[in-house]
Design a protein that fits this description.
This is DUF8050 domain-containing protein. Keywords: Membrane, Transmembrane, Transmembrane helix. The chain has five helices and five strands. With about 160 residues, the chain is α+β, with helices and mostly antiparallel strands. The chain has one domain: Butyryl-CoA Dehydrogenase, subunit A, domain 3, CATH 1.20.140. Strands 4-3-2-1-5 form a five-stranded antiparallel beta sheet. Helix 1 packs antiparallel against helix 3 and helix 4 packs across helix 5. The two termini are about 30 Å apart.
């Protein structure tokens, strides 16, 4: 595969990790509105009464008590995304299996969707936008459609 294509896919995948993956709109009992966001690399407040703050994912995992499945889904999605980045980077030396990368992107998007659904189930007053799911699945479909087709429709080999 041409090196330019691999570099382009790597850049596209890096860009997927920059915007917030989950945006949450919340309202305090006093009526103030705030926006929190979960990124692939951390979480923070975009706008709120206490101002902006940001916590990196390793610091969050070091201090947080993550007990429910949907709270575990966000770091799991970030890990799967990092694995997809590593898989694409292997393409620079000709060792990428595009089916693995596509599967990792699909699972990372599903994990982020599970996180968003869990947030809404836990607190129905939240407005949750799972942007990461759309981005991850969009890249998987746009850049890895052929690999996804081969991943899902594996044709069995005839016995000899």
């Amino acid at each position: 595969m041409p090196r330019r294509r691999v570099v382009r896919r790597l850049l596209v995948l890096l860009l997927v990790g920059l915007p917030p993956w989950t945006v949450i709109r919340w309202t305090n009992p006093g009526g103030s509105v705030g926006y929190d966001s979960y990124f692939a690399y951390g979480l923070g407040t975009l706008f709120g009464p206490l101002g902006r703050h940001f916590t990196l994912l390793p610091t969050y995992l070091d201090h947080a008590v993550v007990t429910t499945y949907w709270q575990q889904a966000w770091p799991t999605g970030a890990f799967l995304y990092a694995c997809a980045l590593a898989s694409v980077a292997l393409g620079l030396i000709g060792r990428e299996d595009r089916r693995v990368t596509a599967g990792l992107l699909g699972m990372a998007g599903a994990a982020e969707l599970l996180h968003a659904v869990g947030l809404v189930h836990h607190n129905p007053r939240l407005l949750v936008l799972p942007i990461g799911t759309v981005l991850l699945w969009g890249v998987a479909l746009a850049r890895y459609r052929d690999a996804l087709r081969r991943l899902v429709f594996v044709s069995p080999k005839a016995p000899n």
